[in-house]
Design goal:
With 240 residues, this protein is of the alpha+beta class. The protein folds into 2 domains: 101 residues, no CATH class; 120 residues, Cytidine Deaminase, domain 2 (3-Layer(aba) Sandwich), CATH 3.40.140. It is built from 8 helices and 7 strands. A hairpin with a 1-residue loop joins strand 1 and strand 2.
Length: 240
């Protein structure tokens, strides 16, 4: 996505109305329909206007690049969204209302639940995490047939045992009656090697799962071009 800026002694932010007609999200929607628009363009239509420092297309692209589609869609507090994303409170409220409407209209179709058999399946399923600029810790909650019954972002930011509490990981498992969990987080650096803290978090959650009777099948590190399993007893290509 282009960053539209003109410089005349100082940087000037180009507004949507100043863009060529074929590059305006609303006009593209009217002419070609919603399928042709990118996620950032759809969000731009919802937010309508940018700020003095940032036009709406750059703002929308930044939100998706830094936090990912799912992290934004799952946020429910306009104050948190406003603070984390540097958004006006009116705009953060608009986003939350829009995503909540979508959740209510299009509930998860249990008939097409994805089956997870190995680490490669996890990597293929979590394609949206590959290019994120910030670390995201995700939990895939499985039923007894290894089908995903819930997908949740557990935390944002570098993994730390003081932040990732077993309660936050296993509460959704209990709520959705999951029998197993697969954990994943991304490394924006591109290095799939687990840190000592990554290994510690994984070990602690495996122990907690054993106590609760909910198996932690694997913990996958995801990068743009590759992945690696942290759990030493699981081969990446073998079925769980």
């Amino acid at each position: 996505m282009k960053k539209y800026c003109l410089k005349n002694n100082k940087e000037k932010v180009i507004k949507i109305k100043d863009l060529p007609t074929h590059e305006k999200p609303r006009e593209k929607l009217l002419e070609k329909g919603p399928d042709i628009l990118s996620m950032s363009e759809l969000i731009a239509i919802i937010l309508q206007t940018g700020t003095k420092k940032e036009n709406i297309i750059n703002m929308s692209s930044r939100l998706l690049k830094e936090y990912g589609n799912k992290a934004i869609s799952e946020q429910t507090d306009p104050q948190i969204l406003s603070k984390q994303f540097d958004l006006p409170i009116v705009k953060s409220s608009q986003l939350i209302a829009c995503f909540e409407l979508g959740k209510r209209l299009f509930k998860e179709n249990q008939g097409i639940m994805k089956t997870i058999k190995n680490a490669k399946d996890v990597y293929n399923y979590l394609q949206d995490m590959k290019s994120l600029n910030k670390e995201q810790f995700r939990g895939l909650y499985l039923n007894s047939r290894a089908k995903i019954i819930h997908d949740e972002i557990i935390s944002l930011g570098t993994l730390d045992c003081s932040i990732v509490h077993p309660r936050e990981v296993f509460q959704p498992a209990i709520e959705y009656s999951a029998t197993a969990i697969v954990l994943a987080h991304n490394h924006p650096s591109g290095d799939t090697s687990p840190s000592l803290e990554d290994i510690k978090v994984s070990a602690n959650l495996i122990k907690a799962g054993n106590i609760l009777g909910i198996e932690v099948l694997d913990h996958i590190i995801i990068t743009k071009n590759s992945y690696q399993s942290i759990n030493l007893n699981i081969n990446n290509e073998d079925n769980y």
